[in-house]
Write a structure and sequence with these properties.
single chain; 484 residues; alpha+beta; 2-enoyl-CoA Hydratase, Chain A, domain 1; 3 domains; 6-stranded antiparallel beta sheet; 17 helices; 36% helix; globular
């Protein structure tokens, strides 16, 4: 009898362990989204429907956000609502409805809260061979400046000023790119508008080939660019492969880890870190540089994993989180597990999930996720790096990337080089994503407010020790390593 009992217990233990391994990379929020087909791309929606979608979006944002009044004032809402009451036409596709409504984004002082572009149409265009403008640009005072021409032959010189694209004035396109970008401050909005300019052109209605009028040395030149597929543009712009991170040795011996995005498989990232830090341990570089200039955040667990290779202590990043709870948020957190596993009572094992489940709808509570002081890690990484560390930041360093970087700055583990982070050290975040009823466009809204270590106010981000333009940050860091 005891043998059968032992077998049953063993089978249960194996099932639990197997489920744990299976779920290790599958615990994340899964927003519900209506099915959008090709037929929906061309479906016409009346002005009344689009206006109703706007009201539904605003009502949801008001209900979910911890302090919506502080990020979008009523006067801006009234002025915007009045401005769209007399559009050029009265029937809209999803993309046209987005163009009409998305310019409200620029009034929202929260980079996690905005109307999202119609993803299905954009993916169909970009992954279906649609061409994008092969220019890396910056936006400055309403002007479009060419940083790099990534097309074959690079016909347009760097630092050229774009005058028009396909006959549309550069100022008009710059204004549109900024208008659809929410954010806590202008540097952040400028940086992300420039980074997403290829998509903004498509949203505006411009496709390749691109007739670009540009000024260089006082002469205006017309150049036709055929454009390139989006995946190739991203590869050339980032100088990396498919993964949003890569490691190499620069100048022969200085470690350089570019960390552009906190997304993707945790296990794949862990394998990457093991290989990278094994190489670092073997070569013993004079310093390691971690580049966060293009990192817009994502899954903060990737940042936690990287930090475990950089410090023997667990460095606290978040002093306090204010959580605003509604019925929608309660339901949202029930999607953390995939279907078939949602019977597991995660909220009974994870403190914050239990507090969300038990809080009255419409209430808020403070959550303290970490110890106040650094704690020695119970398990140390085999290839932990304790040498000199430099971190590069800029206006696109955002969200979970700032959560990762904040303790490295506050506890003086690294020297920071570049520009102030676009995200301040007190910010709204953790997106709740929802559909608009008529168009099925999606919007997102913050439901938490984060207070990071070293925070003083909602305007100040991580300020680098060595302040240079973000484009010069890597050169400055390499120079600092050699001088030290």
């Amino acid at each position: 009898m005891w043998k059968k009992l032992l077998l049953v217990v063993g089978a249960v233990v194996l099932c639990v362990l197997g489920a744990g391994v299976y779920l290790a990379d599958k615990i994340y929020l899964r927003p519900e989204h209506a099915s959008v087909s090709q037929a929906d791309f061309h479906k016409q929606h009346s002005l009344v429907e689009v206006q109703a979608d706007l009201q539904a979006m605003l009502e949801m944002m008001w209900r979910i956000h911890p302090d919506f009044e502080s990020v979008l004032d009523q006067q801006a809402i009234n002025e915007f609502t009045a401005s769209i009451s007399r559009p050029e036409h009265t029937e809209f596709t999803r993309l046209q409805a987005y163009r009409l409504l998305a310019t409200l984004n620029s009034n929202i002082v929260d980079g996690h809260t905005y109307l999202r572009r119609p993803a299905e149409e954009w993916l169909a265009y970009r992954d279906g061979g649609g061409r994008v403008l092969p220019l890396e640009i910056t936006i400055n005072a309403g002007q479009l400046i060419v940083r790099r021409d990534l097309s074959v032959g690079a016909a347009i010189p760097s630092d050229s000023r774009i005058m028009s694209i396909n006959g549309v004035a550069a100022g008009t396109l710059a204004d549109f790119a900024l208008a659809i970008q929410s954010g806590e401050n202008l540097p952040l909005r400028h940086a992300y508008a420039a980074q997403g300019f290829q998509a903004a052109l498509w949203e505006f209605g411009l496709h390749g080939p691109f007739e670009v009028a540009h000024e260089a040395g006082g002469t205006v030149v017309e150049t036709v660019l055929e454009g390139m597929v989006y995946r190739e543009f991203i590869r050339l712009r980032n100088g990396a492969g498919e993964q949003p991170y890569h490691f190499e040795f620069l100048s022969g011996d200085i470690g350089y880890l570019a960390f552009d995005d906190m997304s993707g498989s945790i296990s794949a990232f862990e394998e990457f870190l093991q290989q990278s830090f094994a190489a670092i341990a073997a070569q013993q570089p004079p310093a390691l540089i971690i580049d966060l200039r293009n990192n817009g955040g994502g899954d903060s667990r990737l940042g936690d994993l990287l930090e475990s290779y950089l410090s023997e202590y667990d460095l606290p990043a978040v002093e306090r989180v204010e959580v605003h709870v509604t019925d929608e948020i309660k339901a949202y957190y029930q999607t953390l597990l995939p279907h078939g596993f949602r019977w597991i009572p995660l909220h009974r094992f994870v403190s914050i999930l239990g507090q969300i489940a038990d809080a009255p709808s419409g209430s808020s509570f403070d959550f303290f996720p970490e110890d106040v002081e650094p704690q020695l890690r119970g398990q140390q990484q085999e290839y932990r790096y304790d040498g000199p560390l430099y971190v590069l930041t800029g206006p696109r360093t955002f969200s979970s990337a700032v959560i990762f970087a904040a303790p490295l700055k506050h506890f003086k583990r690294a020297v920071f080089v570049g520009q102030e982070t676009g995200e301040p050290l007190i910010f709204f975040g953790e997106n709740y994503i929802f559909d608009l009823p008529a168009t099925k466009l999606q919007a997102q809204v913050s439901h938490k407010k984060f207070y990071l270590v070293g925070a003083t106010d909602m305007q100040t981000g991580i300020i680098p020790d060595v302040q240079v333009s973000e484009h010069d940050a890597l050169t400055a860091a390499l120079s600092a390593v050699r001088q030290n």
